[in-house]
Amino acid sequence: MTSLDVVICTYNRAADLAACLAALARQRDPGAPWRVTVVDNNCTDATPAVVEAEIRAGAIPGLRRVVETTQGLTPARLRGVRASDADWVAFVDDDCIVAPDWVAEALRFAAARPEAGAFGGRVLPDWGRAAPSHLPRHAWLFAHQDHGPASVRVDHLVGAGVVLNRRALAEVGWTAEPFLADRTGLGHVSGGDVEIGCRLRAGGHALWFAPALRIDHRIAPARQRLRGLLGLARGLGAGAELVSLMGAPDPDAWPARVAAHLREEIRRHVASTRYVLNGQYPWRDWLIRAAFLAGQRAQHRALSADAAARARLGGRWAPGAAD
After folding, report:
1. Nearest-angstrom CA–CA distance, 259 and 254
2. How many C-beta atoms lie closer than 10 Å to residue 273's C-beta?
C-alpha cells in the first residue's frame, strides 16, 4: 500500500505552523498510511508548544518534531527525508494551508503513477486581502503553480507541496548530497526546489502536475511590500545563476558565455527605463526585474571568481552528466 510522509520545515513562525497543522488535522481519511514530521530549524519561539498541542489533540497521525541545527531549508528538508521512511515524501511549507482532501488526493495520484519522480498541485497565493493589481502579476515570486484542469507532465515543480518519490530521490543522489543550500547566503537565494526537479528529470523520472491537489499559500504582509518583493526577486535571480551553472554543458566556458548574455539583458533593461518614465511600463515591475538581474549579476561574479565552486557545481545535470 502506498504511504506518505509530510515534512514541514519551520523557523520561528509558530502562528503560521499552527494554521498549517490545523489544516492537516482536518484531512479526510485517505485510506492509506500517512504521518507528519515537523523539522524545527533552530526555532526560538513557541514552535515546540504548537507541535505538542497538536500531538495531544491526536488528529494528525504520527505527528512528531525533530530538530535540525544546520540552518537552511535544504538541510532541514534533508533531515525530514532521512527521518521518514514512507514511499513518498511531501514538502509542505509552514505558511501553506492544504485542502481537506489534499493527503487523500496525493496518495491517490501516487498510487496511479508510481513511476513518477515527483508531482505537485495547484499552489495559489492567499494575499489575506483584496490584492493590489501588481501582486498577482508577480505571483511567481511566491511559488504560484497552476497548469490548468488536467494532469500534465511539466519541466519544473515549485517546492511548496511537492510530493517526491523516495526511491527516485535516492537514485539521483539528492538524499546523499544536495548541491544547493536554499535560502541561505545572498538574500533569499533559491534553487533547491529546481535542483531536485532537474536531478529527477536528468535521471529519467517524470514530473507531473496534479490539479486535484490544492494549497493556499499565505503571503505575510511584509513579503507583499516592495522591499519584500525586491528581496525575493534578487534571491531568485541568484538562484537562477546557480541553476544555470549546474546545467551548463561546458562549465569552463560558462563564465564568459553567461557574462555576455547578462550584459545584454542589463543593457536592454536600462534602455527600457524610458517606458517607465512615459508611463508605458509599471515602475514596480521594472524594479522587480532589476532586482532579479542584480541577483544574477552578483551570483555570477561570485561564481566566476570561485573556481572550486564551479568545479563542484558545474554541469551537474547537463546532458550526459552523471550524478
Report:
1. 8
2. 13
Residue 286: which of 297, 277, 296 has the closest Cα? 277
- Residue extents of the structural domains in the chain: 4-221, 226-313
Query: Residue 72 — left, alpha, or beta (φ > 0 → left; ψ -120 to 50 → alpha)?
Result: left
The C-alpha cell of 108 is what? 491517490
Task: List, for residues 108-151, the tens digit of each pLDDT value.
Answer: 999 999 999 999 999 999 999 998 889 999 999 999 999 999 99
Residue 192: the pLDDT is 83
Architecture of domain 4-221: Alpha-Beta Complex (3.90)
Q: Which residue has the higher pLDDT, 186 or 29?
A: 29
Q: Which uninterrupted H or E stretch holds 107?
A: helix 102-112
- pLDDT tens digits for 21-43? 999 999 999 999 999 999 999 99
Q: What is the DSSP string of 178-219?
A: ----TT-SSSS---HHHHHHHHHHHTT--EEEEEEEEEEEE-
Looking at residue 102, its amino acid is W
What is the distance between the alpha carbons of residues 78 and 104, in angstroms, rounded to a whole number?
Answer: 24
